[in-house]
């Protein structure tokens, strides 16, 4: 019989992130589907009581916690130690946590210490055969596998955007606090804080309904033989403001920064989508001045509806990578789109 | 600095991202069609780690040194080195084994950590273990942490874009976190393990001189590469499939800008 442990960490305001709430849905579903499974929960953070109260209706039979100032920030050494003791105490055989940056960093080390194994980027569960099978992608979203393991504990990091967020009903839950003192050797690293990239606008919006991808065409010579960077900058920012889209980019466009060419100042490598960039999840995506080459479009795997604006009717988008390709000048089209969006 | 860094970069080959990949069943589990024939590149994020390592070693000077520890089929590693040798100064530690994405990160990490432990003269008190934050094959983002654990490294960072040595000798690290932000941390002492994102450096141009120096150690390293068995013990793959990827693209051509814009706005709002 499996013991399924759902693990989350609190955010700086003491709440649970949307991604954590989604994984809670996955964990409580799984516990219902795996016959005879026990379902427990565990939290780490500076102070987790209010977060636990908020999810007290999730069906977990116990709530474990490692809390205190030492566990408030996202640091490998303290996180691994806390997570290890949490999983040991719960006697968990299957552990579900969301793919937050904090858990992506720490969970592999936890698996090592528990002599368990880990799978990351989990995108689905199957229990039809009476045992757990997971789905995950290989070769950067190029192929999808269903797989199972015999070893336990089995740690699973679940990607966000797959399950609906758990519908919390605030109640009260009794915490089983695990006492943990952190020795100085685990405090060699101090988290100083958060920093936005050295760009002038906050353009990455993970919860946006639309992803807008800008490609290198925005900085290339146009029909008049000139480069129009300032126009490109204004058109893109105006569109982002009027649509609330999240801004993605091709590699070619963000690389121009490190190669010393004139660039769009609000873009950084963090905007890059694709093989060596991100694989964001948004319901819709619109690409403009981007060719739609395979190393770029693998980052679109989880964008359901895709459209592109490109001057080239034979660009990658035309080869079955987009639902609609508009063969047109993106400078003109996007200016008009913003005009229509802002018109009351 | 007289005492430089000992930087071990872990990275191996992956199929060139421009290639079309197709899964097949082999006697040892899932594999890629024509895997041995596919043109390969150094795993992109590991390549960034290598460029950052070479740059740090050069900037720091002293007796700083970079090793590239690579697990892959020997013949393919040799081909890869023909291009990589000219990019950055390093000493190769080669291990002859599978570079398939279907191997398990725990087995790969154990093999790599074993090879690192055997590097003569490696000083853990000034050790930096670098690698990519995720591979283009397995894409687990777990191998560097597991190697770190094997080596007893408890200060680890993932998806790093910047690593700076500060005046007081501490290290400042910028990691990518949610919503396009960086977490800034300061670590007081080595050893440290880092899974790199893209970093801040462009791909270095080919340098034939560096290539010649590297080749002197690369060929012997390839010759003495130990064979290692890495797989995914205990894993059962029920299926590996290509997704239904091809869309029926509707191409809208010779249509006035206003009409296209209206169509896009309608779609955004729907
Ligand atoms: C190892 C490796 C990893 C990679 N990883 C990534 C990755 O993560 N992400 C990524 O994006 N790429 C990646 N690439 C690069 C990828 O192969 C392409 O080179 C890149 O995506 C091209 O970017 P682009 O389409 O913006 O630029 P280009 O190929 O230069 O295309 C510009 C496009 O703009 C169009 N255009 C120009 N002017 C206009 C206009 N006025 N209106 C409309 N259209 C216009 C042109 O027709 C053209 O199609 C990787 C490559 C390698 C080898």
Automatic annotation (TrEMBL), chain A:
Question: GO molecular function terms here?
Answer: electron transfer activity; flavin adenine dinucleotide binding
Q: Which Pfam families match?
A: ETF
- UniProt keyword annotations, A-Z: Electron transport, Transport
Q: What is the lineage of its organism?
A: Bacteria, Pseudomonadati, Candidatus Omnitrophota, Candidatus Danuiimicrobium
Q: Does the keyword Lipoprotein apply?
A: no
Which GO terms of type biological process are on file?
fatty acid beta-oxidation using acyl-CoA dehydrogenase
SUPFAM superfamilies linked to this entry: Adenine nucleotide alpha hydrolases-like, DHS-like NAD/FAD-binding domain
Full protein name:
Electron transfer flavoprotein subunit alpha
Chain ranges of the Electron transfer flavoprotein alpha/beta-subunit N-terminal domain: 4-191
From TrEMBL, chain B:
* Ranges where the Electron transfer flavoprotein alpha/beta-subunit N-terminal domain occurs: 39-198
Classification via InterPro entries: ETF_a/b_N (IPR014730), Rossmann-like_a/b/a_fold (IPR014729)
| Keywords for this protein | Electron transport, Transport
Which superkingdom is the protein from? Bacteria
Annotated membrane-spanning segments are none
Q: What is this protein called?
A: Electron transfer flavoprotein subunit beta
* Organism of provenance: Candidatus Danuiimicrobium aquiferis
């Amino acid at each position: 019989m499996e013991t399924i442990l759902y693990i989350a960490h609190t955010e700086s305001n003491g709440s649970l992130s949307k991604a954590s709430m989604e994984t809670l849905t996955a964990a409580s579903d799984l516990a219902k589907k795996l016959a005879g499974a026990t379902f427990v929960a565990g939290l780490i953070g500076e102070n987790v009581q209010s977060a636990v109260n908020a999810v007290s209706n999730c069906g977990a039979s116990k709530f474990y916690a490692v809390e205190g100032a030492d566990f408030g920030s996202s640091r490998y050494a303290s996180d691994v130690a806390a997570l290890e003791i949490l999983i040991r105490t719960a006697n968990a055989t299957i552990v579900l946590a969301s793919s937050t940056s904090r858990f992506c960093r720490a969970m592999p080390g936890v698996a090592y210490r528990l002599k368990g194994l880990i799978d990351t980027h989990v995108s689905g569960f199957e229990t039809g055969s009476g045992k757990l099978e997971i789905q995950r992608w290989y070769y950067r979203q190029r192929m999808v596998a269903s797989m199972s393991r015999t070893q336990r504990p089995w740690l699973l990091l679940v990607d966000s955007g797959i399950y609906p967020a758990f519908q919390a009903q605030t109640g009260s839950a009794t915490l089983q606090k695990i006492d943990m003192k952190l020795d100085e050797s685990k405090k060699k690293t101090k988290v100083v804080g958060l920093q936005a990239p050295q760009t002038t606008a906050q353009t990455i919006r993970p919860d946006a309904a639309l992803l807008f991808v800008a490609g290198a065409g925005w900085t290339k010579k146009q029909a008049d033989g000139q480069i129009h960077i300032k126009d490109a900058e204004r058109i893109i920012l105006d569109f982002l403001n009027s649509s609330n889209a999240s801004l993605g980019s091709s590699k070619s466009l963000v690389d121009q920064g490190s190669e010393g060419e004139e660039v769009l100042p609000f873009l950084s490598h963090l905007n890059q989508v694709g093989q060596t960039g991100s694989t964001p999840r948004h319901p819709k995506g619109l690409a403009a001045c981007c060719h739609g080459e395979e190393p770029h479009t693998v980052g679109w795997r989880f964008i359901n509806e895709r459209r592109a604006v490109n001057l080239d009717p034979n660009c990658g988008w035309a080869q079955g990578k987009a639902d609609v390709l508009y063969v047109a000048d993106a400078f003109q089209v996007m200016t008009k789109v913003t005009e229509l969006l802002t018109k009351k | 600095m007289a005492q430089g860094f000992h930087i071990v970069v872990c990275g191996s080959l992956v199929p060139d991202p421009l290639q079309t990949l197709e899964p097949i069943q082999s006697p040892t589990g899932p594999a890629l069609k024509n895997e041995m024939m596919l043109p390969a590149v150094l795993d992109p994020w590991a390549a960034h780690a290598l460029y950052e390592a070479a740059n740090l070693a050069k900037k720091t000077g002293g007796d700083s040194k970079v090793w590239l520890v690579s697990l892959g089929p020997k013949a393919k590693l040799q081909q890869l080195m023909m291009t990589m040798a000219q990019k950055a100064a390093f000493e190769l530690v080669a291990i002859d084994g599978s570079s398939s994405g279907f191997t398990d990160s725990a087995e790969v990490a154990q093999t790599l950590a074993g090879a690192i432990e055997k590097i003569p003269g490696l000083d853990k008190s000034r050790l930096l273990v670098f690698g990519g934050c995720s591979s283009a094959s397995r894409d687990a983002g777990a191998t560097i942490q597991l190697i770190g654990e094997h080596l007893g490294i408890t200060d680890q960072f993932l998806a790093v874009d910047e690593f700076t040595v500060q005046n007081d000798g501490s290290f400042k690290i910028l990691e990518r976190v949610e919503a396009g932000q960086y977490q800034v941390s300061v670590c007081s002492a080595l050893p440290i393990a880092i899974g790199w994102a893209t970093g801040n450096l462009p791909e270095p141009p080919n340098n034939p001189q560096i290539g010649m120096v590297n080749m002197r150690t690369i060929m012997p390293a390839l010759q003495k590469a130990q064979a290692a068995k890495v797989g995914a013990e205990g894993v059962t793959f029920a299926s590996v499939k290509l997704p239904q990827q091809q869309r029926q693209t509707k191409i809208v051509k010779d249509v006035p800008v206003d009409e296209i814009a209206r169509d896009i706005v309608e779609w955004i709002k729907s």
